[in-house]
Amino acid sequence: MAFLHLLLQGLETAPACLVRVERTEGSAPREPGAWMAVFAGSEVGTIGGGHVEFQAIAEARRRLAGASGAAVLRYALGPSLGQCCGGVMHLRFELVTLADATLLATRLAPRRAPVALFGGGHVGQALARVLAPLPFQLTWIDSRDGIFPQDVPQDVACEHSEPVQAAVPGLAPQSRVLIMSFSHAEDLDVVAACLRRQRERGDLPFIGLIGSRSKWAVFRHRLQERGFAEAELAQVTCPIGVPGIAGKAPEVIAVAVAAQLLQTLPPDGQDDA
User: Fold this and answer.
1) CATH number for the domain running over 113-263
2) Domain ranges of the chain
3) How far is Cα 124 from Cα 122, in angstroms, rounded to an integer?
4) N or C: the chain end with fewer CB closer than 10 Å?
5) Backbone angles phi, psi at 189, to 5 degrees
6) How far apart are the first and last CA of the chain?
7) Contact 93/36 with Cβ under 8 angstroms?
8) What is the model's pTM?
9) What does the pLDDT look like over 231-267, one tens digit per residue?
10) pLDDT for 161-215, tens place per residue?
């Protein structure tokens, strides 16, 4: 959303040439839909960098100066461009002004996969910062008043829920759920609420619980006592975070968890739903 905000802000004073990846063939540095906006003296966004971006910027400025050309140009990412990707990018060039701002806000707004983060502690705060620029729409939930920081990242929805697990039924479909409250009792109740929702709707593709294997062993036993079967418990990931990262600092955990969430997205970075 930051690039889109800068584009719309820039259009208040000057026109731009929008350069968008129309389609690709073979290996390419960015995916269809990726874009950059070229102003007379600056650029916003990126279509992958390298010489292809340099040439696209030059072409965009040529059009800003009044030149014409085909709406879509083909760029082969081979020796002629000094790039070894070997694929092809088809780039669409479009002049835009402030009059196009409303339409651009709709067209270019990224689709974001919903994430529900339970817990406003140190790791939760680090995660909120790490997830903010990624293709996720974050809902941040805690049972405590005054727990959220003053500088919450833009577009993050903060929600107070008491009891905290009462927020689970209202989560957006296809939410990735991260559970890291201040209390093991709250964590257990949120996990149980997520598993009950899975029984009813099966629409939570990731349920992640912070903690050690020993914590999960205790939780597994208590959840079995609540009537959950092994197949249901297998839907919970604990510990969370991509393997091989040993650090315990909140920022390190946040990066590892964010990387794991990115692995849950389809190749185009968008949900199937």
Assistant:
1) 3.40.50.720
2) 2-107, 113-263
3) 5
4) C
5) -65, -35
6) 21
7) no
8) 0.77
9) 999 999 999 999 999 889 999 999 999 999 999 998 6
10) 999 999 999 999 999 999 999 999 999 999 999 999 999 999 999 999 999 999 9
